Amino acid sequence: MRVLDEGLEAAALAVRATTGALFLGSSADSLCCVAAFGPDAKPLLERSVPPDPDLTKRAFSRRTPHRTAETLLVPIHDGTRAMGLLQLACPRSRFTAQDARVVAGLARYIATSLIQTTSLRRQQGLAAHDPLTGLRNVRELNTVLTKAVSAAKRSGRDMALMFVDVDHLKRVNSKLGHSAGSEALKRTGRALDEAAAGVGDVFRFGGDEFVVLQKHASKESARALADHLRSHVAASTAGPMRSGGELPKITVSIGVATLSGLRQLNGQPPSDLKSRLMTTADRALFRAKDAGRNRVALATTRDDRH
User: Fold this and answer.
1) Three-state DSSP class for 25?
2) Is 153:274 a contact under the CB 8 Å cutoff?
3) Which pLDDT value is given to residue 152?
4) Roughly how many angstroms between the first and final C-alpha of the chain, as a whole number?
5) The whole model's pTM is what?
6) Which range marks the domain in which residue 115 is found?
């Protein structure tokens, strides 16, 4: 937003405009006001849409600035497609061809800034998310979990961490192929995300494992969420695949650990508590798998050992 405001301000100063606005959108009908100045700034930002739809459509369809008696409209392009429209007005004087060229140059600067910002956000998003499932990855888990443990310790509340393992994924891969295994992981991730919505955060840990973080929890609520996660995955993963064939019902095993269930909390730094919480949940997961899979195991103090 700072870049957009600065670009609009620079354009206004360059041609002595008294009012103006910057609209972004991929079509004339989708334009939305994101920055404005002058006497009409407040109504423009509140209404969001350009004041003259017909004039906007004519200007938006061009690649060059459009001038009227009091208004200068300059389309913003990324080289191949329209991205927005820069609108300036000055009732006391008429805009010149030189004014139009100057503002067109500033519009190119705005377009470049938008492209760079969008690219940076995309790169940051890719770095934080698992490409297969779209869930946040283990790097994000480490960051979020450290903060969550610190906050829980300060406030004295409890929290829970769950390790989720897809049962017999190797069988799916060997019988139906790796594309089916990937589909199983995607559907499992989606089912976990649906079941945890509003209650927990879901991460792809790697391989056939996921992690669910419940920042506000008790042993009872954590167990209830884990049971809901397990049953929802089993109920919503089977079905036909785009590549052909039928994906069987997928089940998961879940190990649950709570912060209050650890042996010793006092004097322990958040980084140590985070590691112990993950190790304890992982050991509970192994017990769930050893007991026959497709079940939930709640960690005990014996799982929190060196």
Assistant:
1) coil
2) no
3) 93
4) 50
5) 0.62
6) 2-128
Residue 207 confidence (pLDDT): 86
How far apart are the C-alpha atoms of 99 and 16, rounded to whole Å?
9
SS3 203: strand
Among residues 187, 206, 209, 189, the alpha carbon closest in space to that of 197 is found at 189
Residue type at 207?
Answer: G
How many domains is the chain built from?
2
Residue type at 255 in one-letter notation: G
Strand partners, 93: none
Q: Cα(84)–Cα(8) distance, rounded to whole angstroms?
A: 12
Residue 133: inside a domain, yes or no? no
Please identify every stretch of the chain with a pLDDT value under 50, giving residue numbers as ranges.
Answer: 120, 123-124, 126
Quote the tokens at residue 281.
């949940």
Identify the three-state secondary structure at position 301. helix
Alpha-carbon distance of 204 to 135, in angstroms, equals 6
Nearest to 274, CA basis, from 132, 150, 138: 150
pLDDT at 117: 65
Which DSSP letter does residue 29 get? G
The letter for the amino acid at 124 is Q
Cβ atoms within 10 Å, residue 173 = 16
What phi and psi values does residue 21 have, to the nearest 5 degrees? -155, 155
pLDDT of residue 3: 64
Last residue of a domain, one of 128, 159, 178: 128
Q: Give kind and range of the element (H or E) at residue 196.
A: helix 178-196
Same domain, 216 and 191: yes
pLDDT of amino acid 46: 65
The candidate with the shortest Cα–Cα distance to 52, out of 91, 89, 15, 92, is 89
At 103, list the tokens: 């503002």
